[in-house]
Amino acid sequence: MIKVFLLYPDRDLDPSEEGLPNAADLIQDLGLDTVVAAMAQGDKFMADIVRRVLLNPLSDIALITYRQEILKDCLAHPDVIRELYGIAVEFLEKKREQWLWFSPRSSPSSVLVGGRNLLQVSLNLFRRLRRISDEYADRFASRGFQRFFTMIQRELDDEYLAGIEDHVQTLEFPGGVTLRAQLGRGNEGEHYLLCRPTDQPRRWFERFFSSQGQVYSFSLDPRDDVGARVLAKLRDRGLARVATAVAHAAAHIDSFFNVLRSELAFYLGCMNLNEQLEKIGEPLTFPQPAPADATLFSAVGLYDVSLALTTGKKVIANDVHADGKELLIVTGPNRGGKTTFLRSVGLAQLMMQAGMFVPAASLTASLCSGVFTHFRREEDKAMESGKLEEELKRLSAVVDWIRPHGLVLLNESFGSTNEREGSEIARQVVSAFLEANVRVIFVTFLHEFARTFHEADSDRVLFLRAERLPDGTRTFRVKEGAPEETSYGADLYRQIFNAERGPTPAEQKEEVPQ
Predict the structure, then answer these.
(1) Second CATH level (architecture) for the domain 282-483
(2) Residue 373 to residues 55, 206, 229, 409, 439, Cα–Cα distance (Å)
(3) Which of residues 141 and 494 earns the better pLDDT score?
(4) Which of 22-36, 227-241, 500-514 has the highest mean pLDDT?
(5) Mean pLDDT, rounded, for 99-110
(6) Which of 114, 105, 158 is nearest to 246 (CA)?
(7) How far apart are CA 197 and CA 105, in angstroms?
(8) Dihedral sign, CA of 185, 188, 194, 196?
């Protein structure tokens, strides 16, 4: 049996496998579609596979390492990977162009013809796979590709390929179909069996001068439709077992090329992303995953990959050392890079647990049981519910889905109500998450909430603050720092209105965070 096993060491990708229940929120909040589009390069099939893999995070370090090894091989030998992917695509294109489709409900004759033609199409492609395996097997270091190439060399050896070719030629029945049968009750035929031709078709004069026993035969009138249908039924009875065997072989080959295309699509998407980020000059690294209960997160040069792809240039990166911290509270001025930092963490976590490289110079992070986001949303134009009610509904869904060792990214949550009420809701929600062994990163303007945790002086909490220079300039870097009472909305006021004077005390009091 030919198996691909390039995403998992013991099974193929399951296209029906469900992803994270909050996939829609992750796509919207983290800008995931930007990353998927960059990986797929307009290939809808590849986009679907990449999205599916990213939204089905691995929870086993060994599996992540398995994919990392394979991806390193792909990056080292991109031309080989593209050729392998091209072979799988070519098979599917020929299958579609030549209408090589068959159904178990079809007649045995139809099934046999469709299966035989599928074998014929696959024969040359198998030879190309064998050639690639013989030429490049020693150059790939990963366990996944070593097993794959060894399997191709073993299963698709010269004897096997010659056997396929022989079977394809035989199943064309150049000399007609020969059947055996026995007489049953009422002299009705039974136990029909297809006979294998004993020799090659002979020329007419050899058949004419050869000695044969007595043969009884009959011919149908060309207009005898009923007789033709009867003979077709007899022929199908003899072909049934062979047709079933050929159909099974063809279905296995069809499945192999489909799986090969699907699993290589993910790695090809990673190669596309790597090429684009190299052009921008952004670094990529293979992270070091840690067990979920280790509570590790340390990154150097972590950046938002979706922002880099959108702008097409290098973006501001951050260093963060949060080992042993279960709660990160991020405060600071408006438009200072806090949300961008939050997205960079979420995307890096998903990419790591997909077995990919991550957008950073280095990263060590614990696995999580799932990434969940709760970002601020625009006002409900239909006015079906209040903004706070809408926030709490989405939070309730997160609570229903999340499990221990989950990661929650909160972005300006509970800011739709007043400071006191929002801070109390936030305190209770975050405390409950921590008690349930869930890690939280909270970007917030709720000073009372932040102050409460800061005064508690817990070793489990890390405070980060978006940097602001004395003249009000935002560096878009996030650094360790205690929370401040202001979000510096006056800076934006002066920037937007180009005012020489700052806002009045009344305007400062009514300041709304952005």
Answers:
(1) 3-Layer(aba) Sandwich (3.40)
(2) 13, 81, 65, 5, 12
(3) 141
(4) 22-36
(5) 63
(6) 114
(7) 28
(8) positive
Q: Which residue has the higher pLDDT, 247 or 379?
A: 247
Q: Report in angstroms the alpha-carbon separations of 266 from 37, 74, 287, 329, 338.
A: 12, 11, 18, 34, 30
Contact partners, residue 278, CB within 8 Å, separation at least 6: none
- Cα–Cα distance, 403 to 292 (Å, whole number): 12
Q: Vertex 336, ends 489 and 354: CA angle to 5°?
A: 145
Count the helix, strand and coil residues of the chain and give each as a percent rounded to the nearest 5.
50, 15, 35
- CA-closest candidate to residue 464, choices 272, 319, 283, 350: 319
Q: How far is CA 441 from the centre of its chain?
A: 25
Strand partners, 480: 464
Residues above pLDDT 70, as percent of the chain: 76
Which residues on neighbouring strands pair with residue 366, listed in sequence order? 290
DSSP 197: P
Long-range contacts of range 383-387, CB-CB < 8 Å, 24 or more positions apart?
386/416, 387/416
State the maximum Cα–Cα separation within the chain, in Å, rounded to a whole number.
118
Determine the Cα–Cα distance for residues 503 and 506; give it in Å rounded to an integer.
8
Q: At what angle do helices 61-76 and 225-280 cross, to 10 degrees?
A: 90
Tens of pLDDT, residue by residue over 406-464, are 999 999 999 888 999 999 999 999 999 999 999 999 999 999 999 999 999 889 999 99
Token readout for 504 is 């009045």
pLDDT tens, position by position, 252-275: 888 999 999 999 999 999 999 999
User: Helix 338-353 crosses helix 23-30 at what angle (to 10 degrees)?
Assistant: 130
CA distance 71 to 126: 23
Pairing relation of β-strands 179-183 and 474-480? unpaired
Task: Quick: pLDDT tens for 185-243.
Answer: 876 767 666 667 655 555 544 554 455 556 666 676 777 676 566 666 666 665 566 66
Per-residue tokens: 205: 């004069």
Rounded Cα gap, residues 439 and 371, in angstroms: 10
- Round the average pLDDT of the chain to a whole number and report it: 85
Cβ atoms 511, 490 nearer than 8 A: yes
Q: What is the C-alpha to C-alpha distance for residues 146 and 151, in angstroms, rounded to an integer?
A: 8
CB-based contact 478:341 (threshold 8 Å): yes
**So where are the chain's domains?**
58-172+251-279, 282-483
- Give 20-87 as a DSSP string: -TTHHHHHHHHTHHHHHHHHHTT-HHHHHHHHHHHTS----HHHHHHHHHHHHHHHH-HHHHHHHHHH
User: Is 70 exceeded by the pLDDT of residue 509?
Assistant: no
